[in-house]
């Protein structure tokens, strides 16, 4: 099983947490979307969305985190007594998947940074289109989806309703955690693997005071989840500012140099 991911990609984190919690053997390949490696023809040909995560099982390729999670959950033993909570866990992973973290994240990232990486990505897409005519349509769709996201970010109502969706999901989680220790019951399930990265994203963006502090059950759950070896391996290892800088600064340098040399 080959797993293509990036440590800061929320959807990759969901899948990797599930793989770790289930003790499944996999080979991990890091693909850096900041350097537009997800747009390399070799990767793009297998996953024309150019998104992470991607899971390869022999010749079979899965490109969306929700079906990947569902697939992983069926392997070996279910997580804990997950069998008893299957329906609730399934509801949660779908609900979490429906919330698009991109607008929320991007509205908390400096504009200059978004413009810097966005301009580079567009140039890479255009260069790839010319070099790989067989993929031109797919690259074009990717350009369109980038454009749609930029428009969404300008639409304050859309951004606000995306934020409200998150608030509702956190309220539901608070309600759930008042009755159970984990998201789908009293044992760790795939619902927790999907939800932990959402909380990690809130913390990464330094928004815990606003979103987590007012929800005591959620806060307690979050502290418990951070003690798990899977969290420490998948997310905790990258949660310090120094580690994040180590991931992001070389990408900024790489993109800056390629912009100057026009190497896309
Ligand atoms: N619906 C997809 C979304 C995947 C997604 O947007 N992944 C982000 C990282 S978390 C990504 O690959 N971004 C780079 C890009 O879209 O170019 C899933 O759940 O797998």
From TrEMBL:
CDD domains (UniProt xref): GST_C_family (cd00299), GST_N_family (cd00570)
Signal sequence region: none
InterPro entries: Glutathione-S-Trfase_C-like (IPR010987), Glutathione-S-Trfase_C_sf (IPR036282), Glutathione_S-Trfase (IPR040079), Glutathione_S-Trfase_N (IPR004045), GST_C (IPR004046), TCHQD (IPR044617), Thioredoxin-like_sf (IPR036249)
Pfam family, any one: GST_C
UniProt key word Transferase: yes
Residue ranges occupied by any GST N-terminal domain in the UniProt entry: 1-80
Keyword set, alphabetical order: Transferase
Superkingdom classification of source: Eukaryota
Gene3D superfamilies: 1.20.1050.10, Glutaredoxin
Annotated ranges, domain GST C-terminal: 125-249
Any one GO molecular-function label of the UniProt entry: glutathione transferase activity
Name of the featured protein: TCHQD class glutathione S-transferase
Protein species of origin: Physcomitrium patens
Gene label: TCHQD1
